[in-house]
Design brief:
By secondary structure, the chain is an alpha/beta fold. It has 2 domains: about 5-30 and about 285-385, Aspartate Aminotransferase, domain 1 (Alpha-Beta Complex); about 30-275, Type I PLP-dependent aspartate aminotransferase-like (Major domain) (Aspartate Aminotransferase, domain 2, 3-Layer(aba) Sandwich), CATH 3.40.640. It is about 40% helix and about 15% strand. It has 14 helices and 12 strands. It has helices at about 5, 20-25, 30-45, 45-70, 80-90, 110-120, 135-145, 170-180, 200, 250-260, 270-280, 285-305, 330-340, 365-385; strands spanning about 15, 75-80, 100-105, 125-130, 150-160, 185-190, 205-210, 220-225, 320-325, 345, 350, 355-360. The protein has a 7-stranded mixed sheet with strand order 2-8-7-6-5-3-4, with helices on both faces. A 3-stranded antiparallel sheet has the order 9-12-11. Strands 1-10 form a two-stranded parallel ribbon. The longest helix has 24 residues, at about 45-70. The mean pLDDT is about 95.
Length: about 400
């Protein structure tokens, strides 16, 4: 990987960082721009929050909309995808007996959100079981829609999953859902910056993504896209000045979700700088190199841990994340050991009755990092009882 790109990241050089997927990491030009906005906010808070900052926000939203190919008035910034999921789950007009169709491989915080709002009205959150390992896109789609009933009102599905690191065929899922007249809601937390994203062609009615992960913006920068016809179904979580605004803009949707009182929205403004950085450094080529490193190491870690790959080791289901089962009764202890003793930052995650270890590959990573992980795991296997083989 390009050592010159490594110099743009602020990460601790003493830590082997294989967990970009959790919170990302801003590159230096982005972080510097972030601090400039924060300084400007403190120097003239009234003008920033009520006038100048709003113009910056408009410019940032337009840059994001161009990057993900949607109308700038159909997307708003929010702090994280879980926040956006709460907007949708709270606002969606669920009735008793209604069903939301999802998979059993979704992000835990989103599962909790949907369970909460479904339980409130007597609706059902259907976690359709997906058999692992995945085989083909067609088989995935067939497995998923076995959970469809006459009571299904919405499809909720990850674009790229958190714990398993799998890229789901959401294009095919959205297309088929449309045939059934269902609303489609895609959790794309990991997608922007990792794969090309075109919301015009995807056909998702609702899409959420994190810019602070693979796009490398400042933390607390995510977005919510809602198709124009559905926007007024989803009022803001926080009722503030933008609700029935005294001086409404051209968009109730923007008023509702943008105008929320005193808050530091500087992170939202760093998107254009992040996009410019990626363009300057030919990020499609960088991502391709990262994916190649994932593919080269996938079988090796599975063989070491005596596990089967969760999918064919191809670009169909894999991008810059790779997860595999790991047999341990104490995942939290294993994660802490990897960090404290071996100086490796990597998640070891519980998901239902399974545990996954997941590595992320970003521009600063190299084969040396993965070799260090593999050596550490070998040492733990031979010197402790934390990992079962």
């Amino acid at each position: 990987m390009n050592n010159n790109l490594s110099s743009y990241f602020l990460l601790n050089p003493n830590i082997t960082f294989l967990n970009f997927g959790s919170f990302g990491a801003a590159v230096k030009p982005v972080f510097e721009k972030y601090q400039q906005y924060q300084l400007e906010l403190e120097q003239e808070p009234v003008q920033f929050i009520t006038v100048k900052g709003l113009e910056y926000l408009k410019q940032s939203r337009e840059a994001l909309a161009q990057y993900i190919n949607c109308n700038a008035d159909d997307v708003v910034y929010i702090t994280n995808p879980s926040y956006a999921t709460n907007i949708i789950a709270k606002g969606f007009p669920l009735q008793e007996g209604d069903e939301i169709l999802t998979t059993n491989l979704e992000y835990g915080a989103c599962d909790k959100t949907w369970n909460y709002y479904c339980e409130k009205v007597g609706a059902k959150y259907v976690r359709q079981h997906i058999q692992l390992p995945l085989t083909t896109k067609e088989d995935f789609v067939n497995q998923f829609f076995k959970g469809l009933t006459s009571k299904t009102k919405m499809v909720f599905i990850s674009h790229i999953t958190s714990s398993t690191g799998l890229r789901f065929p959401v294009e095919e899922i959205c297309a088929k859902a449309k045939e059934y007249g269902l609303i489609t809601f895609v959790d794309g937390a990991h997608a922007p910056g990792q794969i090309p994203l075109n919301l015009q062609t995807l056909q998702a009615d609702i899409y959420i993504g994190a810019c602070h992960k693979w796009m490398m913006t400042a933390k607390g920068n995510s977005f919510l896209y809602i198709k124009k016809e559905l926007q007024l179904l989803f009022p803001p979580l926080i009722i503030s000045w933008g609700y029935k605004a005294t001086f409404p803009s051209h968009s109730i949707f923007l008023d509702w979700h943008q105008t929320q009182g005193t808050r530091d929205f500087s992170a939202f403004l760093t998107t254009p700088t992040a996009i410019e950085f990626m363009q300057q450094h030919n990020w499609s080529n960088v991502s391709a190199q990262c994916r190649e490193l994932v593919l080269q190491n996938a079988a090796t870690i599975c063989n070491l841990l005596n596990t089967q790959p969760l999918c064919p080791i191809t670009n169909d289901f894999l991008v810059q994340l790779y997860s595999t089962n790991i047999k341990t009764k104490e995942p939290e202890k294993l994660k802490a050991l990897l960090y404290n003793k071996y100086k490796i930052e990597i998640p070891v995650m519980r998901h239902d009755d399974k545990v996954f270890i997941r590595f992320s590959i970003q521009a600063f990573n190299s084969q040396k990092d993965l070799d260090k992980l593999l050596d550490a795991l070998k040492h733990i296997i031979t010197t402790t009882n934390l990992i079962e083989i």
